[in-house]
Amino acid sequence: MLLKKSQSLAALAAFRPNVSRLQYRWMKLPSSVWIWLLLSCGIPGPESSVEDISGLPRRMYAGEISDAKTISALVAGNPDGQQVIFIHGTPGSAEGWADYLITVPPGFQYLALDRPGFGWSGPDHAVVSMADQAKAVSLLFENHSGRKPILVGHSLGGPIAAWVAATQPDALSGIVIVAGSLDASQERIHPLQRLGASWPIRTLLPRSVRNANRELMALKTELKSLHPLLEKVRVPVVIVHGTEDDLVSYQNVEFMQRNLTGTKKVTLKGLEGFNHFLPWMARAHIQAAIMDLAEKY
């Protein structure tokens, strides 16, 4: 289902295109270039209706995150249930996880935040620091009935989840990294990205695209800072990655397996034939990964 442009603000991160294998090959353009093309044509959304998405409860969390006074999040489910916090990629917003929040399993509280620089969260400019992004995620933490939160991070949300786990080893039950980009050696900056970051071009871009481009240009440096922290991740990790992911290479899986040496367990759910858009194409697999962590740890 493709949302109209007027509706797409309700699902900024919800990429779920219906394309053939041949059509998908053109997506080997750098991710930021592909993002601009996609935005110009309208953004695919989750299956949930705009009415259902707009009806989800929203909370504002106070915190000083790189000039941001508040961080916004959608919240649903049992207020006393175990927290599962969803972290979107770039560009993105909390609404991209709407299908999950509308169908929360019993005994859980699902939360999806607008990362700093996106959605209803401040600031207006991009926050490229993963340390700051991780601080924003931690604002949502609550231990309910003695159960610690589980993080689910998609794409750029994956390394942010890993950063939280590495720097707050006692705060979580586990993390699910969905099509996560953690290997700095896989990152490249395309000339069009530099053009998009230049004045006056950047002033003509929507905030989400402008900030996404800044994040992607800084990603290689941030991932280099994350690399030595990965051995400090202690909680169990589930990696969910599609073998046909042309935006975040499957080689990231090997990198994670090689560097997440301190965890209780690393479980790989490699999805044959799946591409990058797993939150909307492989929801059952992601839900199963969440349940696996909740039941075993």
Give the SSE map.
Blueprint: H1 5-8, H2 21-24, H3 31-41, H4 50-54, E1 58-65, E2 68-77, E3 82-87, H5 98-102, E4 108-113, H6 130-138, E5 150-154, H7 157-167, E6 174-178, H8 191-197, H9 201-204, H10 207-226, E7 237-242, H11 251-259, E8 266-271, H12 278-281, H13 283-296
Parallel strand pairs: 3-4, 3-5, 5-6, 6-7, 7-8
Antiparallel strand pairs: 1-2, 2-4
What is the compact description of this entry?
With 297 residues, this protein is an alpha/beta fold. It has 13 helices and 8 strands.
Tell me about this structure.
The protein is α/β, with parallel strands linked by helices. It has one domain (5-296): Alpha/Beta hydrolase fold, catalytic domain (Rossmann fold, 3-Layer(aba) Sandwich). It is built from 13 helices and eight strands. It has helices at 5-8, 21-24, 31-41, 50-54, 98-102, 130-138, 157-167, 191-197, 201-204, 207-226, 251-259, 278-281, 283-296; strands spanning 58-65, 68-77, 82-87, 108-113, 150-154, 174-178, 237-242, 266-271. The radius of gyration is 17 Å and the shape is globular. The relative contact order is 0.15.
